[in-house]
């Protein structure tokens, strides 16, 4: 009998935000897989797991998912990772593949899930707490309230068009992968008649160097940076 692949969301940083279900599954898993960009790179998701689960005695495998701008390189990496996973599933072993935050929010796991399912294996997704929910809770701001709507966009490729339409059409916008686009993000916010007070930066939530505060385009932010923009907040300053 072949094994089953589980995609497990481990939350944004604090190991205590691992769900009871995720923790139980990771404790029971003989094989844990974690994605990295480059061989030997630190995995934040795996650090979170290590903070809550004793992984000694488990087979822990690193899977390379390159962020190379070349689509072919990225596809080749994914196909190698899928082959490796399929080989372990063929041994009859279940695999818990971990992902930061929630599995459904900008996570590589969902590509893998589709490919593994396509090969005829069984899969299951265990959700985790998304970073922006955790950050909003810490900042004590509602993501949506009353009849408001919410858009989630990524600035990874300086995605101006989707940011502009989100700012036009929604009361609240979560801007992910915002770390190196703060200047252009602030300009867009100002074009929509808002200002710094409408934006709350949530950075490294639940990790070392946590920052929750106003958008300062002069400040340096790391990769784990998200901005919550709220139309009904601030005075457009
Ligand atoms: C590849 S996406 C992963 C999102 C993740 N699956 C989730 O549910 O939050 C990476 C982006 O998520 C956001 N992010 C992840 N962890 C974060 C944290 N601890 N604090 C703030 N933002 C975080 C940042 O916008 C970062 O650029």
Q: Describe it for me?
A:
This protein is an alpha/beta fold and 237 residues long. The protein folds into 2 domains: 4-126, Tetrapyrrole methylase, N-terminal domain (Cobalt-precorrin-4 Transmethylase, domain 1, 3-Layer(aba) Sandwich); 131-230, Methyltransferase, Cobalt-precorrin-4 Transmethylase, Domain 2 (2-Layer Sandwich). The chain has helices at residues 20-28, 44-50, 71-90, 109-118, 131-139, 160-169, 182-191; strands at residues 4-9, 31-36, 59-64, 95-99, 122-126, 150-154, 172-176, 199-203, 211-214, 225-230. The strands form 2 sheets. The chain has a 5-stranded parallel β-sheet, with helices on both faces. Strands 6-7-10-8-9 form a 5-stranded mixed β-sheet, sandwiched between helices. α3 packs across α4 (109-118). The radius of gyration is 19 Å and the shape is elongated. The mean pLDDT is 95.
What is the secondary structure topology, with strand pairs?
Blueprint: E1 4-9, H1 20-28, E2 31-36, H2 44-50, E3 59-64, H3 71-90, E4 95-99, H4 109-118, E5 122-126, H5 131-139, E6 150-154, H6 160-169, E7 172-176, H7 182-191, E8 199-203, E9 211-214, E10 225-230
Parallel strand pairs: 1-4, 1-5, 2-3, 2-4, 6-7
Antiparallel strand pairs: 7-10, 8-9, 8-10
Helix pairs in contact: 3-4
S-adenosylmethionine is lined by residues 12-13, 99-102, 105-107, 130-131, 135, 176-177, 202-207, 223-226.
